[in-house]
Amino acid sequence: MPFSDDRIRMMVTAIVFSIGDELVLGQTIDTNSAWISRELAAIGVRVAEHVTVADDQAAIEKAIAELAARCQVLLVSGGLGPTEDDLTRQALAAVLGQPLEENPQAMAALIARFQKFGRPMSPSNRIQAMLPRGTLMIDNTAGTACGMSALLRSNDSEHSCQIFVMPGVPGEMKAMMTKSILPELRSLAGGAVIRSRTLHTFGLGESVIGEMLGDLMQRGRNPSVGTTVADGVVSLRINAAFPSSMQADEELVKTAEACRQKLGHLVYGQDEQKLAQVVAKLLLESKFCRSVATAESCTGGLLAKMLTDVAGSSAYFQRGWVTYANEAKTQLLKVPAELIEKKGAVSVEVTEAMAIGALQASNSDAALSITGIAGPDGGTPEKPVGTVCFGLAFNPESPEVMTRLFRFPGDRAFIRDRSAKMALTLLRFHLMQIALPF
Amino acid sequence: MPFSDDRIRMMVTAIVFSIGDELVLGQTIDTNSAWISRELAAIGVRVAEHVTVADDQAAIEKAIAELAARCQVLLVSGGLGPTEDDLTRQALAAVLGQPLEENPQAMAALIARFQKFGRPMSPSNRIQAMLPRGTLMIDNTAGTACGMSALLRSNDSEHSCQIFVMPGVPGEMKAMMTKSILPELRSLAGGAVIRSRTLHTFGLGESVIGEMLGDLMQRGRNPSVGTTVADGVVSLRINAAFPSSMQADEELVKTAEACRQKLGHLVYGQDEQKLAQVVAKLLLESKFCRSVATAESCTGGLLAKMLTDVAGSSAYFQRGWVTYANEAKTQLLKVPAELIEKKGAVSVEVTEAMAIGALQASNSDAALSITGIAGPDGGTPEKPVGTVCFGLAFNPESPEVMTRLFRFPGDRAFIRDRSAKMALTLLRFHLMQIALPF
Lengths: 438, 438
Known about the structure:
By secondary structure, chain A is α/β, with parallel strands linked by helices. Chain A has helices at 21-24, 32-42, 57-68, 88-96, 104-116, 170-189, 206-213, 245-263, 275-285, 302-309, 326-333, 337-343, 348-360, 412-432, and strands at 13-19, 46-53, 73-77, 100-102, 130-132, 136-138, 147-153, 160-166, 193-202, 224-230, 233-242, 267-270, 292-296, 317-323, 366-372, 387-394, 400-407.
């Protein structure tokens, strides 16, 4: 928690409040709240909560009143449309104890918008120009529903909350935030800034990574370090909350460096970087290995797909095989049928032969092979579901191979995804000329 | 609003509560809450709110206590990991007023899991077997953190709330919901029911689909029909809200049939069905085409990956080629170099030769080929980014080929995804022996 620090106590606290049946019914995934939170964090406004309720006036009223009592800024989105199930303006009017009245500026903007697109304005649209008395209109540059801004004071006037209401349509909400609300909040927040960075690792579990980081993950530390796992990637989230952006940037870099020191080459990238992009960069910069071919069994093309996710991949990837059946391994990659017979298709011996076969049938500097049991069927006591063998052949003139066997937990999709990432990791360490640390 | 109906008032009310710094900071989009809500709606449990707070023990405690006071079921996810920033179990213990103690069943499951995957258990993992005294353990079949279930009574015993705590990792949460929590809630819910079904189409745009559906999409209709688009798939969401499950089921089926009548074979599947699964089923049941090979250029293995996403895919898929470079097309698929020279690698002529080459180099009944410009670079005025050619070769004794050229909008990832799905769609219509409707 980057916010337990005393220096940060003065930070403005916000709550993000979304309204819509489609959200509470789960028919639409709420992407607005995450977007709003990122924008607020970047200007030093701390988001304490996300709350979502249905298009139900009583529930909206109750939520606005309760949430406004425990934050300085309440960002509301949704329920501003022209139809009967849009009730946010009515609820805000009730909480403020003010009647809805036509706002001339809002009505002029509404009429102008309909004229611009040559569409007739239906009577029901007029409601979109109605605002609770005393609220300020916020211009909507991307749609018909204007936003609203109002200050809600507690009865004893000891606490006040600035409420902003925006449409739920992401494009309209984002335009309104960017053009009108964020500039206003930036001055309110006055300096304090959160800077974030995420470092990505692959290969070891979250708890091992946590132990390697030790004190860096201590609660209350600022910058804070937390871990999350997604698709087999264990990521470190570093958040630095400081009064000035310069200080936040400096401290962020220091903590990021400290994390990298603890984890060494386990960290493959940061923020938006994907494993395949990092491998691509290494291939493009390598002096001894500038291209790779693939020979896949259980991953069925996923490894080649990841390598070619990267724009410009034709510079280092020219061909790959999906040899799902044993005969395909024999015919296309010259894996001896007797070897498969004797050792089993899922064996380091076969994966070795696949890698060499792919290296020799391509003009590539290296070849990666994968064969394993992705399940749900096909497991045996000796080779349970999740057993996956890897090969990396290199040095085409006089081929060398390294092989590995791993056992992955999880379901078919998880095993396949982890296998492809593990193959990329083998290649990554080969390109760095460093021994695999696991 | 399906819930304004009097008949529905007695429904069980739930709140979905998510915990995580990454969520309130907006670094991760919360997809769990929407999934949980859909599952609850399907069994007639009404979701009143979604709430999200950071990994802050005081905030978690406060939220659990307040939310539990206004619902019958509280579904909590997140903060059960082994690291210091995971505080949900501590917060639950505080709200319940009970100490954390080692749960023998949870510890046994934890040890078994680590043994199964041959990984050493680190000391920090032991915390994952600690539960507040008196809570029930919920088995985690997909990860290490077990879930918890506890009944929280108000001081006057007038109100009680059943609290379920799950890991935040989507796969683990979903497994726990499906296997343990939903079956328990289903009996609790009894009565008013929302039944949902989603029909999937691929190939035409949302507005065209909307026009074909006409009146069926009218607002206020029950069952309601709405459209959503995700990854190029236009889906119809049908919701039937009725007092009895029998009536809801009946009305749902009637409306789904009416939608299928309007759209014909454009509907490829429903609910969790993926296009590749539908194609797999058709291949397994076909009398004339029981296997398929792949020859991919711009999709780089994605088509083979989709075909092998399906468990048991070895029955119909034995081999595939990723011929990214022109020489790979020539050497592996016998595409004449002069043809590539004359027509360009992205041409229906080359895609035709690739499909025939793949058909002849495999023992498959059909072969799919894809070559195109996924971008961001490589486009020309005649063949802009998004131009993709498809081939489907069949009848190995005397090969026939159909080819198509499509132009897709969007970025590299979108074009590749759409291309692989379009190839599956070509095969689907071939297997149904119906002409492609676009």
